[in-house]
Write a structure and sequence with these properties.
Strand content: 5-15%
Distance between the termini: 62 Å
Structural class: alpha/beta
Number of strands: 11
Radius of gyration: 21 Å
């Protein structure tokens, strides 16, 4: 059936919005702290939930640049996806007199005592990549860098890219990531955006978590057997594309439009080779500097501005041709524009 004129209008709007996201990024101005950032003589500990994930490692590299630019020393302590390892990192940071500790994607509620022990020692702690936990007392030494709005925006962009690619013929399968309240709510926001952009387009869903990733191929395969007309696979994070595609092949579907987000090297190589339709790339170095700005706000005694902007670039066959897709380039801003954001942050921090 032909789409209604209202639906046609929303699909055209999605295409126009996506076209804007294909351009190199115009970096937003940071919210400056009220005091200059001076990390001279301080060691800032970076405790990610797991450094092996490319996007998390990349954000850490950007944060390292920011810390060193402000005169500090950066120290990585890898949480290795293990609460015991993460707790041990926080304990060591306390014992070694850390100037500040920044965690990435570690839920405060996972090890509240370890966080509280640090703040009780007067060590400032920024809990990054997660919203504030119930029971966490935010104060001069504890703040959250809440990514809820940014993750919602990324997942909504995935829906926009799927609908913009296949228009009124889009028949979607959305893979809902239920790892946390953040990813669950963002998945729901992505599905809602799909329905808003194309009310007449069918949409099916598969629920999964990172912990049960081994079950994703069979779940995708079963969903495609049940919904044989699906033509668009909407995947929230790049690293889940290979198991999802494996499931699609099992179901005899090797020609699906695949859209996802993160900007991981293998996925962008797949976009360039025609195996994936598009990818909403995350500029990891820039994101690391935004963690630096959040730390600057905490140290200045300011409220920490939420991580609320889905800053990224949509890469597809129309704009990926000129990019150098290498591991080294992944840890730069080359795919997204220039490095001018660094000067903006340094000016905001009063760093000469």
């Amino acid at each position: 059936t032909a789409p209604s004129s209202a639906a046609s209008a929303t699909i055209e709007a999605a295409k126009a919005e996506l076209d804007k996201l294909k351009a190199p990024i115009a970096w937003p101005d940071p919210v400056a702290p009220t005091k200059p950032l001076d990390l001279a003589g301080k060691t800032v500990w970076w405790v990610p939930i797991g450094d092996a994930v490319p996007v998390i490692h990349g954000i850490g590299e950007g944060f390292k640049q920011a810390v060193e630019a402000a005169g500090g020393t950066f120290k990585l302590c890898d949480g290795k996806f293990n609460p015991a390892d993460i707790g041990n990192c926080l304990k060591q940071a306390g014992e070694q007199g850390a100037g500040a500790v920044v965690t990435a994607f570690v839920d405060y509620a996972m090890i509240p005592n370890a966080f509280n022990a640090l703040t009780a020692q007067g060590i400032p702690v920024l809990v990054g990549g997660v919203p504030q936990s119930a029971g966490a007392k935010v104060g001069p030494n504890l703040a959250f860098f809440d990514p809820t709005q940014r993750v919602n925006g990324i997942y909504q962009t995935i829906s926009m890219s799927g609908v913009a690619t296949n228009g009124a013929q889009t028949n979607g399968l959305w893979l809902r990531l239920l790892d946390s309240t953040t990813t669950t709510n963002a998945s729901d926001a992505g599905v809602a955006k799909f329905k808003e952009l194309c009310p007449d387009c069918p949409i099916a869903t598969v629920d999964f978590t990172t912990a049960n990733i081994d079950k994703l191929p069979s779940a995708v395969s079963a969903a495609l057997v049940k919904n044989p007309n699906v033509n668009t696979l909407l995947v929230p994070v790049d690293s889940f594309v290979p198991p999802a595609v494996q499931g699609a092949k099992t179901a005899g579907k090797s020609d699906l439009t695949v859209v996802s987000a993160s900007g991981d090297l293998p996925n962008l190589q797949a976009v360039k080779a025609g195996g994936q339709a598009g990818d909403f790339g995350n500029p990891v170095i820039y994101t690391g500097w935004t963690y630096g700005n959040a730390l600057a706000q905490l140290l200045a005694g300011d409220p920490v501005t939420p991580d609320d902007k889905a800053v990224g670039r949509y890469l597809d066959a129309t704009n990926i041709g000129g990019l150098t897709l290498t591991p080294a380039a992944y840890l730069t801003s080359d795919w997204y524009g220039d490095d001018s954001f660094k000067a903006k942050f340094l000016a905001a921090w009063g760093v000469k």
